[in-house]
Write a structure and sequence with these properties.
The complex is a heterotrimer of chains A (about 270), B (about 375) and C (about 180).
Chain A (H helix, E strand, L loop, with lengths): L23 H15 L6 E5 L15 E4 L5 H11 L4 E7 H7 L1 H10 L4 E6 L34 H8 L3 E6 L3 H13 L4 E6 L3 H7 L5 H11 E3 H5 L3 H4 L3 E6 L19
Parallel strand pairs in A: 1-2, 1-3, 3-4, 4-6, 5-6, 7-8
Antiparallel strand pairs in A: 5-8
Helix pairs in contact in A: 1-6, 3-4, 4-5
Chain B lengths: L11 E2 L6 E6 H11 L2 E6 L6 H10 L6 E4 L3 H13 L3 E6 L1 H6 L1 H9 L4 E9 L5 E5 L4 H6 L8 E3 L4 H18 L2 E7 H4 L2 E6 L4 E2 L32 E3 L14 H16 L2 H4 L2 E4 L6 E5 L1 H16 L4 E6 L1 E3 L3 H5 L7 E6 L6 H7 L3 E6 L8 H9 L3
Parallel strand pairs in B: 3-4, 3-5, 5-6, 6-9, 8-9, 14-15, 14-17, 17-18
Antiparallel strand pairs in B: 1-11, 2-10, 6-7, 8-16, 13-15
Helix pairs in contact in B: 1-2, 1-7, 3-5, 11-14
Chain C lengths: L1 E9 L4 H14 L3 E8 L7 E9 L11 E6 L2 H7 L3 E10 L12 E5 L1 H9 L5 H13 L4 H11 L5 H15 L9
Parallel strand pairs in C: 1-4, 4-5, 5-6
Antiparallel strand pairs in C: 1-3, 2-3
Classes of the chains: A alpha/beta (about 270), B alpha/beta (about 375), C alpha/beta (about 180).
Chain lengths: ~270, ~375, ~180
């Protein structure tokens, strides 16, 4: 991270808590860069997170108001804060298990209400902090601590879920595309209604190790190779897109489209 | 209104709307009390028999520029309340047994992060869905011990529509002054009771100290209440439900840090027991037998006591208006002064067990969990057997 | 002065409204009032009661265990609540659904509340207010004016006229009963 952005880091922290090779550090940088480029007054920034590795992206790292809440509840806490002080620019950063499994109800209802929140979901396809258990976004067939014979269930397609629930703006980018990711976060923040950004962020320690991506580079290659843009995806069949990460931006006008997602309907792993 | 009250230096009167004499339900009175106390945020989820509080807030809050939201469940409700409180609003929710159970984790978060908020639990006949429209008082222990870990909380117990108004205001006063969730443990009988009550402005209610000076999660005084800057105040707040130091930094592996924080949060309540404790004494001066009661049950108990007095029996009533912290000194003071104590409750001895810890004489308890209030004649008959 | 009034009937008959108006009116008149209602899970057709305690001093116990005045609009309510009548208490029953008058020495009055409502308004609605008027006229527990004011304050304006008229008709039915005795 460049020196110019260091003022966004809380003083006294020596290193992040993320494992070597974790994608969350890149996402932290993208979030900071986005709010910096938008020129948002630091006093108006509120970051809310739940429980899990991704919840530690804003808390304690970002030097702004941060609310590190309970597992699954970040969006509900954020809703209260935003309604009580509409001046606040409220950004939720949390993980897939937190936001979509235990917190799934809050996510869809916040999207339905259209409250002006930006929700950034770091999707690492697994429960990292608790030791690599399967989550709602774990690809079908993937190995985890609780799916030793492969995940028997399909994952959520978060873009379709949140768009279907009423979000005004939805985007999906992997951390391997930091510039488009940063721009998407900026657009999400500027959206004066509920906006959602799904970020594919590799977890070498839990997902990679269990699914035989022995070096971190291979895991990043996987995400890079699985990613296809909306334009590229447009001409392909559902079967061709199975397990692909379709990246881009969506609005309610795209509700008729099948977006696909990381491991949507089965992973390539 | 309430004896023994102290008010922090930063307090001010809640509203200048004068006094309105009204015929209202307890639930309506609670909503009016909340608005009078300065509540400007409500999040909730409909549940019998508390929903009229939510409906009242939906109507009243927009008139005073406050925010109201119906959340997707009670977990979301308490979450939104805590978020709103940190954003600077006096915030409240109301619920009943099943919803109260769902809120437990969030309430522990509020205790641990020292978030002022008010929770009204209009108790109904549990356990489980039980009898949703009927009365009970089975959440007394849950309010104290329902959260995991050791916490000290404040719980008030109203017995009239007037007290639904007055004690809601007091709950906000204590919540803001001590940075705590404060419970109003009402019951269906009081929540749905209609009575003539005064919605008055003769009260003081603490205002939060929103200073950026000092540390938001600790102060040099071990029992002290730190100032509470809010989101948007430029304090770069670090709020977490993990064990934290005075500045909010996570300290999740230091034994002393955890012990120190848990103890400070306990002391914050326990060291103020005298200030918080609020009891009412009726006909106790020469009593041989004392009834210890709370909530609507105490209302019937007083009627039974008066009937027995007319029959020459020396009996009095100690009414508990605070249940937590438990008024142990007031109970201990009965020891040696009265021969016996009678504790009627709409549960099976949740407060009687506490009384037992502090009163060594004869203790008779009557627990009723049939969804009905304990009849005056039932209490009178129980008391008569004690003479 | 302490008077305990119980209205009883079926859900949908406006029993709770009658009790609420009496409590509201007593408060407007400077008295203390306490009211409590009981009804089944269904809003319509199940047994229902509305109790009101009126007093010139603060009320110790707000529930009604024995009633000084019982006003019922169904036979079931009459049968159910009669045992809770205080000694010397008064009973008013809508004669529309009355099949058996109580036995024994009870100050009992059958009144045509529903008949009057149907005759005047072409609907049973309003019978509850006629009954409330009967109670006021016969017992003098409260003057008519505060009840009229309570109607103006709590009832939607387009129903003011009908409710005030129903109250007046009931009051006139009740006045001759003020002397007591059976009718």
């Amino acid at each position: 991270m460049p020196r110019s952005l260091e003022s966004y880091l809380r003083p006294g922290l020596k290193a992040t808590t993320f494992c070597p090779g974790c994608g969350h550090g890149i996402l932290l940088h993208a979030v900071i860069r986005a709010v910096h480029e938008l020129g948002i007054d630091r006093r108006d920034l509120l970051f809310v997170s739940g429980i899990g590795c991704a919840a530690w992206i804003p808390s304690p790292h970002i030097l702004a108001d941060t609310l590190h809440t309970l597992h699954g509840r970040a969006v509900a806490y954020a809703t209260g804060a935003k309604l009580a002080n509409p001046k606040l620019q409220v950004i939720v950063v949390s993980g897939d298990g937190d936001l979509v499994s235990i917190g799934g109800n809050h996510l869809i209802h916040a999207a339905r209400r259209g409250i002006d929140l930006t929700v950034i979901c770091a999707n690492n396809e697994i429960y990292g902090m608790t030791g690599g258990q399967a989550g709602p976004t774990t690809p079908g067939g993937a190995l985890s601590a609780t799916t030793p014979a492969g995940n028997p269930h399909p994952p959520f397609d978060l873009v379709r879920l949140v768009l279907g629930a009423g979000a005004a703006y939805v985007a999906r980018y992997p951390v391997t595309q930091p510039r488009p990711l940063t721009d998407a976060i900026k657009r999400a923040i500027r959206t004066p209604a509920f906006a959602f950004v799904e970020v594919a962020s590799p977890c070498p320690t839990q997902f990679g190790r269990r699914n035989r991506f022995d070096d971190v580079g291979a895991l990043y290659d996987r995400i890079r190779n699985l990613s296809v843009s909306r334009a590229e995806a447009a001409g392909r069949s559902k079967e061709e897109l199975r397990g692909r990460i379709v990246v881009g931006e969506w609005t309610p006008d795209d509700l008729h489209l099948a977006a696909g997602g990381p491991g949507a309907g089965g992973a390539a792993c | 209104m309430t004896a023994g009250r102290r008010v922090s230096e930063t307090s001010g009167t809640g509203h200048s709307g004068g006094t309105a004499r009204r015929y209202a339900t307890g639930n309506e009175a609670a909503a009016h009390g909340a608005i009078a106390a300065g509540c400007r945020f409500y999040a909730g989820y409909p549940i019998t028999p508390s929903s009229e509080i939510m409906e009242g807030m939906a109507e009243l809050l927009p008139r005073v520029g406050g925010a109201f939201i119906q959340m997707e469940d009670e977990i979301a409700s308490i979450s939104a309340v805590i978020g709103a409180s940190w954003a600077g609003a006096k915030a409240m929710t109301a619920t009943s047994g099943p919803g109260f159970s769902l809120m437990m984790e969030g309430l522990g978060y509020a205790v641990f992060t020292e978030t002022p908020c008010v929770i009204i639990d209009v108790q109904r006949a549990g356990p489980c869905t039980g009898q949703a429209t009927r009365v009970g008082s089975g959440d007394v222990m849950q309010s104290k011990w329902g959260m995991h870990g050791d916490v000290e909380i404040v719980a008030l117990s109203p017995w009239s529509v007037q007290e639904m108004y007055d004690l809601t205001i007091r709950a906000f006063h204590l919540a803001e002054r001590l940075r705590l969730p404060v419970f109003l443990l009402a019951d269906e009988a009081v929540g749905h009771l209609h009575e003539t009550a005064e919605f008055h402005d003769r009260f003081e209610v603490a205002q939060r100290v929103r200073s950026n000076e000092g540390t938001p999660f600790g102060s040099p005084d071990p029992a002290g209440v730190p100032p509470m800057p809010c989101f948007g105040d430029g304090a770069n707040l670090l709020v977490t439900g993990s064990t934290h130091d005075e500045r909010g930094y996570r300290r999740v592996e230091e034994p002393e840090a955890h012990a120190r924080l848990v103890e400070r949060l306990r002391r914050k309540v326990l060291d103020r027991r005298d200030e918080l404790t609020d009891v009412e004494r009726h006909l106790l001066d020469d009593a041989e037998v004392a009834v210890v009661a709370y909530g609507f049950t105490a209302r019937g108990a007083l009627a039974a006591v008066r009937e027995l007095r007319r029959a020459g029996k020396k009996v009095g009533l100690l009414r508990l208006r605070t249940l937590w912290p438990f008024p142990e000194r007031e109970i201990a003071a009965l020891d040696g002064k009265v021969r016996a104590v009678f504790v009627p409750e709409m549960n099976h001895g949740q407060i009687a067990g506490e009384v037992r810890k502090w009163f060594r004489g004869e203790l008779r308890r009557y627990g009723q969990t049939n969804g009905e209030v304990i009849a005056v004649e039932t209490m009178r008959a129980e008391l008569e057997r004690m003479f | 002065m302490l008077t305990r009034v119980r209205f009883g009937g079926l859900g949908g008959q406006g029993i709770v409204m009658a009790g609420s108006l009496l409590g509201e009116a007593a408060t407007l008149a400077g008295l203390h009032a306490a009211g409590s209602n009981s009804y089944g899970a269904a809003a319509r057709g199940t047994a229902c009661r509305s109790d009101v305690v009126l007093s010139d001093v603060e009320i110790d116990y707000p529930h009604v265990t024995t009633a000084d005045v019982l006003a019922v609009m169904s036979q079931a309510a009459l049968d159910k609540y009669l045992p809770a009548l205080a000694p010397g208490g008064l009973v008013f029953a809508d004669d529309f659904s009355l099949r058996r008058a109580p036995e024994g020495n009870v100050a009992f009055h059958a009144v045509p509340a529903t008949h009057v409502a149907v005759r005047e308004f072409g609907s049973r609605q309003g019978a509850n207010i006629v009954m409330l008027g009967v109670v006021l006229g016969a017992t003098g527990v409260l003057a008519r004016e505060p009840v009229e004011e309570a109607i103006r304050r709590t009832v939607r304006p387009r129903f003011h006229e009908a409710n005030l008229r129903a109250l007046a008709l009931g009051f006139d039915l009740g006045r001759p009963l003020a002397a007591g005795g059976r009718s």
